[in-house]
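Thread title: Can someone regenerate the structure for this chain?

I was given the following input by a collaborator and told the matching structure tokens would be attached. They weren't. Posting the sequence so someone can regenerate them.
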Amino acid sequence: STTTFVRHMGLAGPERVAVTDWGYSFTLVDVSVSEEPRTLTSQSVYGASGVGWSEPYLYVLSTAGHLEIWNADDPEEPQRVGVMSGLSRPWEMAVASDVAYVADVDLGLVVLDLSMQEKVRVARLNYLERLARKRVSMLKSIWIKAVKALRISAK
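Best answer:
Regenerated them for you:
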């Protein structure tokens, strides 16, 4: 086992996943040998929730209302290169190229412009609370199934 409780997970590069525990950190895991996942590093992020990936950056949401940006060129020693505040209670995210879609419990669907890593900004706020909650619930069930599959393959 690489962490005691998986809250969220996502791809974090070729043959790697990032998992967050119950709000205290994220862990990068090498899954190149699916029967033997190997912890590469764990980093502290208070309120860690959803994660996203766009080479070479790992994006980690915090339920404290911000997004942390980590350069994972060296997955055993990632470097935090930025923090964007202004979110409320972000839970899950999906990244596509230089855009992140964040499900925030209070703000609904938030679209972030990631084109400038040094200055991530909110591109659009949509107060679609019901849609965001439905999406979070669906993503959560997908992640739970994936985590169970990882646990089975780790045994």
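The radius of gyration is 15 Å.
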